[in-house]
Amino acid sequence: MFGGKDHTVTAIRRLDKSIDYYHLPREKKPLFQKLKKIPFVRGVVAIVEAAANGSKHINFASDRYDVVPGQEVEKVEEVSKIQMVLGVAAIGILSFLFGKFIFTLLPVFLADFFDFLVPSKTGQIVLESSFKLLLLLSYIFFVSLTPLIKRVFQYHGAEHKVINAFEQNLPLTVQNVQIQSRLHYRCGSSFILFTVIVGMFIYFLVPTDPLWLRVVNRILLIPVVLGISFEVLQTTNALRNVPVLRYLGYPGLWLQLLTTKEPQDEQVEVAIASFTKLREIEKTHVVSN
Ligand SMILES: [Zn+2]
Q1: Using an 8 Å Cβ cutoff, are 288 and 3 in contact?
Q2: pLDDT tens digit string along 123-139?
Q3: Which segments does the entry list as coiled coil (predicted)?
Q4: Contact status, residue 181 vs residue 168, Cβ threshold 8 Å
Q5: 33 C-alpha vs ligand 1 centroid, how far in Å?
Q6: Which of 63, 91, 28, 49 is closest to 226 using CA atoms?
Q7: Residue 83 has pLDDT above 70, yes or no
Q8: Is the pLDDT reported for residue 266 higher than 50?
Q9: ∠ CA(47), CA(48), CA(52), 5° rounding?
């Protein structure tokens, strides 16, 4: 999936080896457009949008990838009840929030459990953040061992390679794309790591005791942490060509060693097709992926 200024495009490989596309115009709700101009708030809006949009794209891909073209009509009826009631976008947002809850609160309880060993506030916050990082990294690592997610991460790597080749003005051939790095500075998954680091600093400003207050403030601070992390990501992106300061973005790149994998040539073809389609639809600058 590639995102342009006004559109997002997904390409998938069908069973008969043909490539199929799904493209969504970006919804320009007036309220969203206004909110997107406000620093800190715009990050939260962007994440909610990404969760909703991504969910629609994944739904398309999982609906189609194992269906032979021409036979997809029979599958149309198979929409689950939850999907009908809530809509695909809402499910995306809800599952994002659910994950956020788990990965925010579990570290709180784990750190609190070790209160007898590490009683100081500083120690507790560092411990909580370390648990959070460990949980996130091991979660990403273990899901990446499943064949499905491994493929997703290969496509993710393929997307980065395409963008890297494009930014060097190389013709988008499989060979030119494959030799590129599978890491990209502007990657959205770097964001995950920044939320852990930013969260740690923000937690110093609020009370850690008693436990219920800690739980409540962690939940209430979720949008704050997301909003600030988004600004940090934007800032590191802006500094990517500045000597020394460019290293600020490196933790995000390291995380991509987990969230991307080396793609196969066939997968690179799909990523090139998807990107080319987006460029056709939208002759403007590609901002994110
Ligand atoms: Zn990425």
Answers
A1: yes
A2: 999 999 999 999 999 99
A3: none
A4: no
A5: 24
A6: 49
A7: no
A8: yes
A9: 115
How many angstroms is it from 97 CA to the middle of ligand 1? 20
Task: Categorize the per-residue pLDDT at 120 as very low, low, confident or very high, splitting at 50, 70 and 90.
Answer: very high
The number of residues in the chain equals 289
124 C-alpha to ligand 1 centroid (Å): 32
Distance 274 CA to ligand 1 centre (A): 15
Whole-number Å distance, alpha carbon 120 to ligand 1 midpoint, is 37
CA 118 and chain centroid, separation = 33
Q: Which residues contact 161 (CB under 8 A, 6 or more apart)?
A: 177, 178, 180, 181, 182, 263, 268, 271
Q: What is the mean pLDDT of residues 170-177?
A: 96
Where do we find the tokens 């290293």? 247
Share of the chain above pLDDT 90, in %: 47
Residues 6+ apart with CB under 8 A from 195: 225, 226, 229
Q: 288 pLDDT exceeds 70?
A: no
**Position of tokens 């962007």?**
46
Dig out the tokens for 271 from the structure. Answer: 């990523």
Q: Which residue has the tokens 């994002």?
A: 96
- For the record, the structure tokens of 27 come out as 């919804």
Task: Please tell me which residue, 39 or 204, carries the higher pLDDT value.
Answer: 204
Q: Which two tokens stand for residue 219?
A: 């939940």
**DSSP β-ladder status, 19-25 and 2-3:** unpaired
- Non-local CB neighbours of 162 within 8 Å, separated by 6+ positions: 172, 177, 180, 268, 271, 272, 275
